[in-house]
Amino acid sequence: MATVFTVRKGRRYRATVTLGWVEQIATNDVIAERLSAAGFADVAIKGTGRIRSAEATWEGPDTTAELDAHLSDVIEVSGLA
Hints:
Structural class: mainly beta
Oligomer: single chain
Number of helices: 1
Strand order of the largest sheet: 3-4-2-6
């Protein structure tokens, strides 16, 4: 069963990114571009290989959706002041 998560406008989130065997050759910039295309800003990706850490701010409206299978351990790290 897929995990459902809600992101809220202006809040920052951290997640573990787990890549497949072939996907692990992707650069952190490529992963950041995918998160930016999904609506995130200020994207920072750390790590190499199959397991990376991502942190980004949600810029879209509050949204509830199924998490991408590559993402896990999603937490909010900061909200609106």
